[in-house]
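Example 3.
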Amino acid sequence: MIKYNDFVIRFANVNGSGSASANNMFAKALFRMGIPLAIRNLFPSNIQGLPTWFEVRVSEAGFVGRREGADIMVAMNAETYAEDIESILPGGYLLYDASKPLAKELHRSDITEIGIPIAAMLLDEFSDPKQRSLFKNVVYLGVLSKLLNMDFEVLSDMVHVSYRGKDQLIRPNIAALEIGRKYASDNLTSPLPLQVRHSDAVGDRILVDGNTASGLGFVYGGATVCAWYPITPSTSAVEAFESYANSMRIDKQTGRKNFAIIQAEDELASIGMVIGSGWNGARSFTATSGPGISLMSEFLGLAYFAEIPAVILDVQRTGPSTGMPTRTQQSDLLAAAYASHGDTKHVLLIPSTPVECFEFSAESLDLADRLQTPVLIMSDLELGMNESISEPFTWDDESKYDRGKVLDKAGLDDIERFGRYLDPDGDGIGTRTLPGTHPSKGAFFTRGTSRDSYAAYTEDPEHYVANMQRLELKWKTAAGLVPAPEIDTRANGEYGLIYYGTSALPMPEAIQHLKDAGIEIDLMRIRAFPFSEVVFDFVESHTQVFIVEQNRDAQLKTLLVTEGSINPAKLPSILYYGGLSITAEFISSELISFFEKTASPRISEVK
Amino acid sequence: MTFLAKPSVRHRKLKLNELGLSHRDYEGPVSTLCAGCGHDSVSAAITTACAELSLPPHRFAKISGIGCSSKTPSYFLDKSHGFNSVHGRMPSVATGTSLANRDLHLIGVSGDGDSASIGLGQFAHIVRRRINMLYIVDNNGTYGLTKGQFSATNDQGSTNKRGVPNLYASIDLVSVAMQLGATFVARSFSGDKSQLVPLIKAGLKHPGFAFIDVISPCVAFNNHEGSTKSYNYVRDHDSQVVNADLVLPQAEITTNYAPGEQENVTMPDGSILRLSKLASEYDPRDRLAALNYVQSKAEVGEIVTGLLYIDPDSSDCHTIMNTTEQALNELDESVLCPGEASLAEINASFR
């Protein structure tokens, strides 16, 4: 039986060998055939010469979470043959370069081995050894196009698109594709029973990575200052910001930039710059990962206490310490939520999709200005660096930036006496002024030390406590302004499941698995911290609420228990933290085994 | 601790500047530092310099780190915003301020602990980036607030109050600044107002990064026999090379200069920076020679003061980055947001 648009294909390459562009062309061609898919790059913390994997999950059903095991393995790195071949599911396919025979012990009887003498074929075609090595990747694409029954026109179009401006590369790439295709026609049984075909399942959605979406979101949200320090996996967000700003934020008349980007000497400096410009009312952000959050902690406390807007994009990676810098995790939650000494709490926004990266990045700038406090966007490597299918970006041209409570000169003229840390509206948020506004009013001294409502230094316990309580009130205001959770009470039962961030990717598939096992469960995807009442209501209205997280210590659970005084026993954890992204299989099997162990009635049994 | 407001009565004979403002309009509340602290003299010199330049007092931003020196921005220019930030991190906050609003007059005040120890990294990098600001270090060679530990600018062999010598080499901030490409580097002494005030004026007018290291004795912990940062020691070992005087475009040149060579440098606003050389062999436009001179004098225990180096063709970070001439914090969505129309094309690029 032929299976259409439903498989995992993995390419095993050597990094720095030019495989990335070929593999991307393959994935993009399938996407252009209208097939939902997700791309995962598994790469080492290295520049050249180590193993790297590129995985495409193709799913007509739209299941784009990671799935264990490969249906098709394109093994182009002899060093990793053993583990690559082992990862093929029974009944799957192995493509390898048969210029050198496969060692005896590597053969498997339960898979189909397809050896192609790629290196030998290229020897006749290309004299330059560098070209031979590069086009090796394109040849296997040609073979795959035949085996999978791909639309060859779409694939060769991809070559034209990919090498636009480097036209001399188009012809040899097409030639290499044809070599592979012809080899498959002449020598292999094709197509395989695993095939692709045109679909309309993608609709108007796009294929994009979260960091690109964030960079674009910061342009749309009006960020003018970006200070940053390079760190995997956040760097590409700043590169995207710079690239979009260069194309859309340069004054046509003067050629001058309506933005400033500084690559700082470290993360301490990058957050310091962001705070300095936020203090002056310019929208600013930095992008970093866990180690950067640790370094920024002192400044984050200052911005919390001195009440200065700042936006930090944290693209989380596997910790602690240097951890696995090129692997994903959701393990910065606690460090970010309570960053810095003393009683500090920070607003977190937690995107799940590229379009949310775009929207939250823009919205974070509004929230930071409104709340006069740092706002951290908690993305992760899985979302930030891998392309996945997403709703397209949209923008309401009628919308205006929310600059928060800033008094201008006229505003200052109207008042008797300015008090920076008064609470004029009862929402815990004071009114601020920017340096240079008024000749005689509104100037104040910003400090990390305790002060009274008029910004004068004080060590008076009453003033100190009043100020801390106002900050607590502001925190409650924040809970009503941040993105609400996404709730699905489909089951209307006694079990709930909480998840966030990239655990959303495998969730539809996990829900399907559960349904197949007779389990239906209510869902809540948390999108921000502080938690609104709705979050606690969800927990309250279920007897047991599972929390899916990609860290060891159940960090979101800790936040929920702490902030909501919830009995921890009510919140069993489903924790995956191996550095790859969590799978539907992992989530559903953990849940199913809970139901089995506790002999809890399933919906199907109740009904 | 309380802050004392100064009486608001204005002396009738108080001299007014071109804005009709007196010296008092550039002051702050009474300092809470120790009586006789050199830092208060630096604050007074800043006040005088700003008043004499007739700059609007509210158009300044004063940034500092942590320490005695970093408290001083509360004691001058009380009509402007100040930011007492994090220990050693004033440069980054100042950088952000400059990026957001290039029209402000930016003064950073730091100390030797703040800039040469915990903040040496940020100091080095703000020099490299040429942020348009005046960066002053109130340099007393000691940690005052924590009661007298040596700082990194304390000279090797110099003793603390109990007579214990500093065992480690000192960091000379003016040499570091020159080495890293600062375009205006000066050193002065808090006890020499006639030298310091003109240097501050020149530094404020300098387009780009201006650095003044001010030896400012700590009367509580580092003003004893055996210290190389005491009033007596600095007076005895001060070796003045080039004094500067800033002559505003509209002003008459009336100052009497001490004998020696004189040289004029024209500033971008048309004012003249008049340099009076007290050491005839010294050329303040020759960076390498200046570095060499400062360090060779230090070898024999002399503290070279004055305008040590100036690059008359300096530029600042905004020029290097080619940012818009309007302050970035004034731009709104009409300029910043590309709008829905551009998104169509962007979405198409991801299909």
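Chain A has a mean pLDDT of 96. Chain A has four domains: 3-195, 208-390, 409-481, 486-606.
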